[in-house]
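Components:
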Amino acid sequence: MKNDWIQQVQDAGIVGAGGAGFPTHVKLNAEAEYLIVNGAECEPLLRVDQQLMERDADILVKTLDQWVEAIGAKQGIFGLKEKYHGAIAALNTAVQNFPRISVHAMPNMYPAGDEQVLVYETVGKVVPEGGIPLQVGVIVVNVETLLNLAKAFDGEPVTETYVTITGEVKNPGTYAVPVGTALPTLIKWAGGVSVEPYAVIDGGPMMGKLIEDPEMITVKKASKGYIVLPADHVRIQAKKKSISQMLKEAKIACCHCNLCTDICPRYQLGHDLHPAKLMRMASYQSLGDASASLDEAYLCCECGLCETACIMNLQPWKLNISLKGQLREMGIKNSHNKAPEAPRAFREYRNYPTHRLIGNLGLRIYDVPAPIRENPEAVEEVRIALSQGIGAPSVPVVAAGDQVKRGDLIAKIPEGKLGSNIHASISGKVIALGDESVLIRKERQGGMDQ
Ligand code: SF4
Ligand code: SF4
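Structure:
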């Protein structure tokens, strides 16, 4: 049975909908003690998972129970924040006839959705340095991924994803968007931009990427939201700052207070990640000391909390990203694999409240609802990327000029590689086939949509 289900998941092209887009058929092809649904949605302003858990509680609980059985787990857990009152009430009602499924409410802190933080908060296990939850008997899936698993049971592939569009738009909202839809379409659906000049972050304000040209962006399966902000907003300026500028400032301003290390969620879990020491090494070109090495950067989850803690507005996370890139280029791998049995003693007092984070980021006025809305119009054209996340780009199985229906396979996993199948997200004609994407346009004949 399990093999059939894994095949269904692979056929449906499901990837992790809450992160880097790891292929779900690979993740679920394992045995684990716990299957945890990551419903923390800890990035400020995003509003997808909390609403899906409230709206679709019954189907989510049923599907989780089925997969708990399939992977041989003893328990399935929804991990979400205690402030999601509607979702908690709906899930608590839905789990009543499912003794293996429970709901775990976590404090309203950042980054509750970091996989390793979530695992510790829900089952009290610390994932080893540089490791994955499976090493402590846990598989984690995102809420929307679970919804896609439910659809896969009905033979429905992934053709759409839920996306919040918020910030400086007239009507913040959350939409079920065909994969490949252009970002300007979403901005239009949300009533248009209400400030000029503006900038857009792809994802949450902490870990999301600054978009260079919003006209060129299309929605991917793992997209979760877009935040429109004034171009001179502090969050935009912080993301724009170059690593060399940041390190120059660090040389002058870093007071070695160690706050960035004290607040770091991975350090607090017991991992040997010391952002303060890495900043000292980089800004003074020193080799540091015997208790720290540059490849600690591999232990960083890039949550960005160290910047929020820093009274000098420095960005240790940016240094870590840069270090990881340089180390990989040199072929140097992570040497850290310590497996702490418990987190550091004062971890519970170091949680960073999300409401404070929102204030510190200058986002208080944008912390508003973004309700799930009907799409106001059909999408006429999609440009679907052949790379939808981790793994090799998919190989097209259509040619320019082909007619496709929504849900048809248009690109498949390359033989023997890690990747995901891709399906047409609207019905229409394949207009162009590039190295990186497939362009599909809805055709009209005699005034009728085909
Ligand atoms: S981004 Fe900063 S706070 Fe987050 S894990 Fe990395 S070093 Fe720690
Ligand atoms: S918090 Fe800022 S000032 Fe303090 S050690 Fe870290 S980078 Fe330096």
